[in-house]
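Cross-posted from the bioinformatics board.
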Amino acid sequence: MRKALPILAALLLAIPFACTRPQSAPVGGVEVELRNPILPGFHPDPSVVAVGADYYLINSSFHYFPGVPVYHSRDLQNWEQIGNVLDRPSQLPLEKSNASLGIYAPTIRYHEGTFYMITTNVGGGGNFMVTATDPAGPWSEPLWLQQGGIDPSLYFEDGKCYMVSNPDATITLCEIDPATGATLSPGKALWRGTGGRYPEGPHIYKHDGWYYLLISEGGTELAHKLTVARSRHIYGPYEANPANPIFTHCSLAAQDSNIQGTGHADFFQAADGSWWTVFLAYRRYGGDFHHLGRETFLAPVTWENGWPVINGNQPVAERMTVRLPDVPAQPQPAPVHEDFSVIGPAWMHIQHPIAENYAVRDGILTLTGNGDGFDWGGWHPTALLRRQESAECRFGTRVALQGDGEAGLAIYQSHNGHIEFFVRREKGRSQAVVRVRLHSILHEQAAVPLPKAEARLEVQAHGEHYDFLLNGREITRVDTKLVSTEMAGGFTGVTVGPYCRLGKAAFQGFDYEEE
Ligand code: 6LW
């Protein structure tokens, strides 16, 4: 299990929210023990760009706002969130979006002083791109693009900008004007993959005079895999690598690994010339279930006989000895100090927040419910959510209702699968409740009377289950598989945090600590 430094926010304003990542291996030597995933928890569809000694990584974000988190690293092991690409509603129409819609796989690229992010808003306008001179933002308003399909990527060469995506399950290339998004050439079909379902996630790279087209096939579940084709000309014809798939854990060698679903990759070249890939995979807990979401992993790429080879054709593991670029030892990312008066970049909402339902004063976060919870139809719940990034962690808060209502902590996977631990006051009667939603089942698993409508609520996550502690005493336990992707669906991962569905509630602090 990944050892993580605590992320603490014992008291709003008084004791700030601290977020650090451990440095389990020395950086600066050539050989290190790499800690995978490099971005644990809900970090799917990674894309990365190297600019000199700096690496910038982004992920998909679906119906969350803000969307597309941006991480920065210099040593490839320690990543710090520096912002979100889509942090204004005008960039991110999310009406009635859910955990299977909204922002799909993005690509980040850099060309002549400008960063480009291209992605698909599924159900919200399709393919678009935005630009920035600083990857921390601000990013531009969207340029909407004509070519359809999902998972668009960009490739720049000789003053031209190419877009590649997968309309009609065919990897298709066109030239676009990067300043306006206008299509400059008809779409040219390049490849349909090797016959696996869902050919997607295309990226083009050039190496030794060849154009390489890297894609994913098999879908983002167990059969996920990477395949590659190459051509001397960008428009093709592309020949498939006879050794495809070049990477999958859907294999004899990796069938017992807790890491599955490996795919959706992006290659990059480090400052020292070495090649790497980021890709997504998930870790299983309690059988074939995963609840933390698809996570971002790193592995080395070598070139052998004109084809890329990932991790020496070996399965990846949570600890791998690799030769990282020989960079100066990088201090850990500075702790992120958050008080809720300045909402840090790690905090998210489901769809756009309704601003007047959030207030911070004198170290107290006050949330006002609008009736929306986490079920279907609750489009704008009053909630501040962050990724659960370790299967072993604890988080808690002290909540006090002001009158009748419902407020507490949410553990949210999708509208079909979520858990709330809350204080409820109804007709003068107060209770602490643990409630589970799984599709059509709505189950109150524990309801404990309270003398008044306030309590300390804490959740301890232990891999396969969550324990719920009311004022320091455990009252019940729920299996994490109930909020797994296999049960609850969607493309996301568990997020946790304070919420208020009904009435008004004051939250004093929020602790999140990984073990
Ligand atoms: C994404 C596609 C995929 O757009 O899942 O795993 C889709 N790969 O490339 C949603 O994340």
